Amino acid sequence: MTNVTMIVAVGRNGVIGDGAAMPWHLSEDLKYFKRTTMGHPMVMGRRTFDSMGVLPGRRSIVVTRQEEWSHPGVETAHSLDEALALAGPADEVFVVGGGEVYRLAMPFASRLLVTEVDQTPDGSVTFPDIDAADWVETARDPHDGFTWVTYERTHVARR
Fold first, then answer.
1. Per-residue confidence at 18, pLDDT binned at 50, 70, 90?
2. Cα–Cα distance between 62 and 89 in angstroms, integer?
3. Longest Cα separation, the chain
4. Residues 80, 6 contacting (CB under 8 angstroms)
5. Residue-by-residue DSSP string for 64-76
6. pLDDT at residue 159 in the model
7. Edge-to-edge order in the sheet of strand 3-11
8. Residue 156's pLDDT is what?
């Protein structure tokens, strides 16, 4: 079974975006995202792909309901299950957004890499709640304006 890791930057209010873009620009966090995901498949929704495009050194697998949607250099799936099947076998698959894809992927994830951003932005797209019964914090790395937090699943995912 491929390890599924969700990587996300979240405001204090749970907001991750407004449906078109991230509400902040944290250069150090973008470098962390690049170094962490490099060489691994990334699964994302179409709007997330539209906001970031093809990133070098990583496979992009886009989940979309649009049957005819395609983009050069991108693999397309029409469900999360199909996307995870396309990604494997891989040592780790990163789910990189957006909100709906995160909600669908939460039961499959074994690790969460959360950048807690010290802001309360406006936005309608949120990250699902992290249930303390399912997750344990295993690392916390504070920085100026944000903190990198790692969570590991405490038991087998509920599916």
1. confident
2. 17
3. 43
4. no
5. -S-TT---TTEEE
6. 44
7. 74-77, 60-63, 42-45, 92-95, 3-11, 111-117, 146-153, 135-143
8. 58
Question: Residue 111: is its pLDDT beyond 60?
Answer: yes
How far CA 76 is from CA of 46, 56, 66, 95, 153, in Å, comes to 9, 17, 10, 14, 28
Mapped onto helix, strand or coil, the DSSP state of residue 159 is: coil
Token digits for 87? 């990604």
Residue 52's CB: how many other CB atoms inside 10 A? 16
> For residues 67 and 144, what is the distance between their CA atoms, to the nearest angstrom?
43
Q: CA-CA distance, 119 to 35, in Å (whole number)?
A: 24
pLDDT, mean of residues 135-146 = 97
User: How far is 101 from 62, CA to CA, in rounded Å?
Assistant: 10
pTM tops 0.90: yes
Residues 6+ apart with CB under 8 A from 53: none
Which residue's entry shows tokens 């209010």?
13
pLDDT tens digits for range 51-105: 999 999 999 999 999 999 999 999 999 999 999 999 988 899 999 999 999 999 9
- Whether the Cβ atoms of residue 3 and residue 93 lie closer than 8 Å to each other: yes
